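Morning run. Coffee first, then this:
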Amino acid sequence: MYLLALILGSVLLPEAYTLRCFECMPSGNTGSCKPKEQICTSPDMCGALRITQYQGEFELLDISKKSCFSPDKCEKGSVSYGWGRAVINSTCCSTDRCNNNNAPKPGVLSANGKKCYVYNDQNITDILSCVGNEDCCVSATVMTEGRKISVKGCASRSMCSGSGSAQMTGVLSDIRCCQADLCNSAGGVGVSLLLLVAPMVCFTLLS
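And here it is:
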């Protein structure tokens, strides 16, 4: 009797933990796709991710994707470079097809009192007021036109480690985050955010 119960449990238990989520992986920067159903494996969750890119107040890109997410990929955060910002917002849930809606757009992000060095659009070092949950100063390098160029700004801690940092791999390298005000010291050569926007979004959607 116990053997029969063990066999039935081993057969039925995986089915009981199967989670079904919507999957929508847009190609390029169109931001649109037709959702389809996807079967996840435990301990995955249903997730919706939204990447929004701004130059000043102008919205450059707004792309959403849906898929099975591991809990560590349910990230919220932003990276700011003074005249531009990339915001990642996500929602996760654990019931069948619960990721029907897109993750919401970020609201207005208020200054949080933290200060970091940044390069302005003339590549001159300036001081940036961080917003939202940007609790770190960041220094990194980007490869553009065969050259490694320094960038600086504010970043959420989730963008400095874990899956948030992984989403930046291939775009930003040598990411260094610190928590004290103005700890990302002032030297180096800057780069326009516009050089980062397209590759960053494309890579994030494919990761």
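Helices lie at 2-16, 162-166, 194-206. Good start to the day.
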